[in-house]
Design brief:
Layout: E1 2-3, E2 7-8, E3 11-12, E4 18-23, E5 28-34, H1 38-57, H2 60-76, H3 78-89, H4 101-116, E6 123-127, E7 131-139, E8 142-146, H5 152-165, E9 169-173, H6 180-189, E10 198-200, H7 205-213, E11 219-223, H8 226-236, E12 242-246, E13 251-255, H9 261-273, E14 283-289, H10 293-306, H11 325-340, E15 344-347, E16 362-365, H12 372-375, E17 382-388, H13 391-399, E18 403-404, E19 406-410, H14 414-422, E20 428-431, E21 446-447, E22 450-451, H15 456-461, E23 464-472
Parallel strand pairs: 1-5, 8-9, 8-11, 9-10, 11-12, 13-14, 13-19, 14-17, 16-17, 19-20
Antiparallel strand pairs: 2-3, 4-5, 6-7, 7-23, 12-22, 15-16, 18-21
Helix pairs in contact: 2-4, 3-4, 3-6, 4-5, 7-8, 9-10
The structure holds nicotinamide-adenine-dinucleotide (NAD).
Nicotinamide-adenine-dinucleotide (NAD) binds at residues 146-150, 173, 175-176, 204-205, 208-209, 212, 223-225, 228, 231-232, 246-249, 280, 377, 379, 405, 445, 450.
């Protein structure tokens, strides 16, 4: 079994402890990584701190050239990285609607190049005979990036590239479930970046907590559960670290009366089930008007029964396994609770016997708010479809949740759908689409789905502090 490296200050570090990484399609280990000790966290932060002055002093053009070179390195190593992502996450190489390891690499490459090219020029607020007032954006220092297991490499890229573009150095901690492709990428990046600019430490929540508490880290960018986000915020308070928190979602979609059921059903199915529902901004609760409720349920259940579930390395596979056993248990518990409390299971409903962490794609009718499957983030291949009788009621039900990541409205009346969409309490609302992000448009959660945004110049600004410069002229 191959061991992938942990890189600190440009060098591979042997910690004397290793962790085996499980392929969830088989439930068997396929690779190993070193596990960081507390002194490795200190060494990584010290290396990033040491590298910061020289990195900050590089010109924008120099940094942009190095970031484009990272994009080229991702592209040159795409087959190997896709294979590692499929083995560690279980997601198919291509997958349902092409949302698979190929998209994870394609997205990583696109985000790298677009983010590298984002401008970060000073803004001139005033320039007259009295004074010139400029707003400058300065790097913060050492940024810690803590990532989850669902899109491990792409989310790491979402964190690292804007941090580096703005002149910060980085210590990255991938999820202990899926560190392999990220560790390999950081190893490849050493051929491009000066030592210490990008470091990786591998471990679990203890290593994440050590980073959140570390006095020499200036900012944490975290993607993961709301529960962990709250812990990080507590730990970061002691040194008033800057935070970007991209947390859990429980995104609602509303199908307005009169929508074209045959046209939207495959889209609804795709946005709820791609990556097996393990995406922060998957559609997680679907509200459908009484007049079309049965038709939508029937179509979604048909699609759930037809979709091809299997090992992601098989090119025919559309949905893989859950990424880990704990998540399989969460989904199984929610399915059992739904069946016991008035839900009707229209397809699937249980884990698949045999090897791997597979769960049958499941559509549940007959529930409403108050049921666990509706109120809690399932993060798996099970979708509750909820009946409503008037649009005001649907809006109220959609907003009746502590999360506020995304939301969607489905209708052929685009103006009406946009009006309804703007009343949803969420960071992004899509019309006739759900969860589609792009590197130049800000994305983030409201309510308990997070703090701050990523992407585009709004996201880049979060990796900087403002310095206002006022030059008196007389
Ligand atoms: P998680 O919170 O369990 O783990 C995320 C990371 O935090 C891991 O690297 C983990 O080791 C680390 N961690 C655990 N305890 C920690 C602590 N006390 N201090 C610091 N770090 C700690 O999340 P997960 O299960 O890996 O990911 C799934 C969740 O992530 C879902 O809720 C999903 O909605 C959310 N998510 C959100 C977005 C978004 O952009 N909003 C994107 C992807 C995933």
């Amino acid at each position: 079994m191959k061991t992938y490296p942990m890189t600190i200050d440009g060098k591979s570090v042997d910690t004397g402890r290793t962790l085996e990484i499980i392929n969830p399609a088989l439930g068997q280990p396929f690779a190993a990584v070193p596990v960081a000790r507390p002194q490795d966290v200190d060494a990584a932060v010290a290396a990033a701190r040491k590298a910061f002055p020289a990195w900050r002093a590089t010109s924008a053009a120099e940094r942009q050239a190095m970031l484009h070179a990272l994009g080229a390195a991702l592209e040159a190593n795409m087959p190997e990285l896709m294979d590692l992502i499929t083995r560690e996450t279980g997601k198919p190489l291509q997958g349902l609607n092409n949302v698979g390891a190929g998209m994870e690499l394609g997205g990583s490459i696109a985000w790298t190049h677009v983010t590298a090219d984002l401008p970060l020029e000073p803004e001139v607020i005033q320039d007259n005979e009295q004074a010139r007032v400029e707003v400058h954006r300065k790097p913060l220092g050492v940024v810690a990036s803590i990532t989850p297991w669902n899109w491990p490499l792409m989310i790491a890229i979402w964190h690292i590239i804007p941090a580096l573009r703005a002149g910060n150095t980085v210590v990255l901690k991938p999820s202990e479930y899926t560190p392999v492709a990220t560790a390999r990428f950081v190893e490849l990046a050493q051929a491009v970046l000066p030592p210490g600019v990008l470091n990786v430490v591998i471990g679990g929540g203890d290593i994440g907590a050590a980073l959140s508490q570390h006095p020499d880290i200036n900012k944490i960018v975290f993607t993961g559960s709301t529960r962990t986000g709250k812990r990080i915020m507590e730990n970061a308070a002691a040194s008033l670290k800057r935070l970007t928190l991209e947390l859990g979602g429980n995104d609602a979609g509303i199908v307005l009366p009169g929508a074209d059921v045959q046209a939207i059903a495959p889209k609804l199915f795709g946005v709820a089930f791609h990556n097996n529902g393990q995406t922060c901004a998957c559609l997680k609760r679907l509200y459908v008007h009484d007049s079309q409720y049965d038709a939508v349920c029937t179509e979604l259940a048909r699609l759930a029964k037809e979709v091809r579930v299997g090992d992601g390395l098989d090119p025919a596979t559309e949905l893989g396994p859950l990424q880990n056993r704990a998540q399989l248990d969460v989904v199984s518990t929610l399915a059992a609770d739904a069946a016991a409390n008035g839900g009707t299971i229209l397809s699937g409903g249980k884990a698949r016997a045999g090897q791997g962490y597979f769960f049958e794609p499941t559509i549940v009718a007959g529930l409403s708010n108050g049921a666990r499957l509706v109120d809690e983030e399932q993060f798996g291949p099970i979708l509750p479809v909820i009946r409503y009788s008037d649009v005001e009621q649907a809006i109220a039900l959609a907003n009746d949740n502590p999360n506020g990541l995304g939301g969607s409205v489905w209708s052929s009346d685009l103006a009406l759908a946009a009006e309804v969409g703007k009343r949803l309490e969420c960071g992004t609302v899509w019309i006739n689409e759900h969860g589609a992000v792009q590197p130049d448009a800000p994305f983030g959660g409201v309510k308990q789905s997070g703090i701050g945004v990523e992407f585009g110049h709004h996201g880049l600004a979060e990796f900087t502090s403002i310095q206002t410069v006022k030059i008196m002229k007389n």
